[in-house]
Amino acid sequence: MSIARLWGSLRSYATKPELRKLRNIGIIAHIDAGKTTTTERMLYYSGKISRIGNVDQGDTITDFLPQEKSRGITIQSAAVSFNWQKDHQINLIDTPGHADFTFEVIRSVKVLDGCVTILDAVAGVEAQTEKVWKQSQRSPKICFINKMDRVGAGFSRTVKELIAKMNTRVALINIPLFVQEPQDQVPRFAGVIDLVNMKVIEWDPEDCDKINVTDATTAGAEIQEQLLRGRESLIETLGEYDENLIEFFLEEANGDYLKVPPELLNGSIRKATLAKFVTPVLCGASFRNIGVQPLLDAIVNYLPSPLEASLPETNHPTLPVKLDPKLGALMNNNKNLCVLLAFKVITDPIRGIMVFVRVYSGTLHAGNTAFNSNTGKKFKIGKLVIPHANVYEEVSTLYPGQIGILVGTTVAENVSTGDTIVTHSLKKDGLRSLDSKRELTVKINPIAIPPPVFSVCVEPRTLGNKKSMEDALGTLTREDPSLHVSFDEETGQTLLSGMGELHLEIAKYKLVNELNADVEIGKVMVSYKETIDGKTPEETISSDAGYQLTVSILPLPLHEDTLDVVARSIHETWYPLGIDNNYLIMENHRKYTTEELWPFQISFQAVINALISSSIVALQKGGKIARYPLHSCAVKVKGDWTLPPDIENPAEVLKLSRKLILTAISNIPQDQFSVLEPVMDLDISVPQKDMGSVIQDLTGSRNANILSIDDESGIDNNDQNIEFQKIAQEQFLPPDPTVKLANLGSEGSSMKFIKAQVPLRDMVSYTNRFRSLTQGRGSFHMNYSGMDKVNKDRLSSILNE
């Protein structure tokens, strides 16, 4: 076996991974930074696959969907598992980079312990990189600066951007090695200088399996100088966090930066990384097979095991959760309690519905009886499998910290994305021995679903196709909850809503080609909403049968991040109603304050579920201006409601409450409704000479609100950013011609960064216009900001559409 593959060989594929040697990580980045290419090389060098696939040829392991192969992009996250450094197991999820598939990133980082952020050495820190960095803020990270072989690649420029834009200190693990060949006009990227192990690592350009490792301390003068300065910077940065390292440096190493052993440095880097004090940085060129093995070493050396990761957040703040070296996140001090989170659902043509789960606590066995704490339903665990992209290995047990898949009809009927599953680790039907008030009701905090902003109308070609269309749409939204289906009873239209035009395009492809739905699909439209202004009167319904229910409809702040400042009474419980910032607010009942006092045969949770369902349906029916679904509204139920003592069927509560809520909405005057439209955060990078025409187009034709115009850095000058800009300037970095070019660019060619907010309606098909204004030299990125009220002038044109 070659040196390259021997690097991570000598592995033992243990059935039960040792928790401290397990790594659950994700690959995150801007689109086209090289995530899938890097993942493919990781699989090859770990010995998991015997040949390297390429994105352009459509034969990579993790991009296996037909649309991924044809488009050369990642659409859905894919999980793979492999070993490195003898017996360390790495569970890796390759995530999409396109903004339309941001939910794939959100639900992946929810269950991961650490992340590898891949940066394009030519493009630097791009807009989507900043977004996924924020989405994974709870996870320690390492950075891999990819594409160092490309013309215009700038390692030092990219590191400076990383420090200044992400507000992080860096620990340079290696720096690029360039060699000048007689036949090359410019130096060729050949490998890395390993600052920790003091080695020069050079990859053979003709054979990716051949690596030459030499001692950096005996290399040329230039390499020795970079080694010394790099180690000096590394030790001084780590010394701000690790006093023991400084003590060793002064007393044992006598102030010699080269005498600090790699083992001590690695331990210090690991501690600082887990504390999110530094971000380790490595470089390479994955397509040229350079730098991947040191990256794998860094994953094992610096990213957390499940025993070092953040504890899962649950709905029981007082429920004790602690880390156990054998059982993972031990909950309620119960070693027999097994808790897992379902974070993804897919439909396999052979195995059917498959539910991806992360085991947080305890051990999961096939055949056990489990409990869905979100729905209150019991079901049987069927088969368990470990994923390797679209190939699956059947196992009998999933251990703490593992990512696996549940398969079977009962799972398909009882589990959805975001559900928490509870079972007994030892007994097949041991739910009775679990604490019904705390352990059977524990829920890991749900996965946030971003709101859809585009819609298309979906109609069956014939009336006989309606049932198959509804089934196909159900499968589609089950797999991807960021897709949303709504039905307008007045117009008879079914609308499918998603995150963007590409998102809906892929959904349409799956609907027609994979789910075989015989449907007609309309053009893409912007998703508008309505909301109410001011308090509305209460509505009450009562009957001789024993029902009494009083509700009111309340307005909420439009932006969800401002909900925290809303005065929430301690006598209320808030239940989110999905994607439109709507809530059900239940006042604490004056009679039924404890479970022992509950007099009805129907359970309290069943009543709540019925009220949630009826609230969602009623609010989706829309307001009085254009029947757009209601947004940022709360259905508040007073605490003096009563039910018939003999009630058993939740459908009765559902029917009654739906009618009451619809009545409450219908009695709101029309002048208290407003139309909302989605507004996007827009980040533009444009040459200075084109800036005027771009801004004129934005303010004139796009109704944009320009927030800021910055120079090359694109960084806001608040106190924290100023601090990290200073750190970026003082950070040791090897010579990089692109830094000088960036700083000394001519007035016409230097880049400007524009931040703006713009209505989504005015940005449809903006790509062609922007390309024309900048002759292809600029780039832009949009991200959903929130919903804003439409003024009267715009309202008339929207309604005329």
From TrEMBL:
> What CDD domains does the record tag this protein with?
EF-G, EFG_III, EFG_mtEFG_C
Provide this UniProt record's keywords sorted from A to Z: GTP-binding, Mitochondrion, Nucleotide-binding, Protein biosynthesis
User: Is Ion transport among the key words of this record?
Assistant: no
For this protein, the record's PROSITE patterns field holds: G_TR_1, G_TR_2
Name the predominant localization. Answer: mitochondrion
Asked if the Swiss-Prot or TrEMBL record annotates the protein with the keyword Nucleotide-binding, the reply is yes
Extract one GO molecular function annotation from the record: GTPase activity
Return the GO cellular component terms, semicolon-separated: mitochondrion
InterPro entries membership: EF-G-like_DII (IPR053905), EFG2 (IPR030851), EFG_II (IPR041095), EFG_III (IPR009022), EFG_III/V (IPR035647), EFG_V (IPR035649), EFG_V-like (IPR000640), G_TR_CS (IPR031157)
Per the database record, which ranges form the Tr-type G domain?
A: 20-307
Q: Where in the cell is it found?
A: Mitochondrion
One Pfam family name is EF-G_D2
Which Gene Ontology BP annotations are present? mitochondrial translation; ribosome disassembly
Q: Where does GTP bind?
A: 29-36, 94-98, 146-149
The record, for PANTHER family, names: RIBOSOME-RELEASING FACTOR 2, MITOCHONDRIAL (PTHR43261:SF1), TRANSLATION ELONGATION FACTOR G-RELATED (PTHR43261)
**What family classification does the UniProt entry report for this protein?**
Belongs to the TRAFAC class translation factor GTPase superfamily. Classic translation factor GTPase family. EF-G/EF-2 subfamily.
According to its UniProt entry, what is the function of this protein?
A: Mitochondrial GTPase that mediates the disassembly of ribosomes from messenger RNA at the termination of mitochondrial protein biosynthesis. Not involved in the GTP-dependent ribosomal translocation step during translation elongation.
Q: Which HAMAP family match?
A: mEF_G_2 (MF_03059)
What name appears for this protein in its UniProt entry? Ribosome-releasing factor 2, mitochondrial
* Species name: Torulaspora globosa
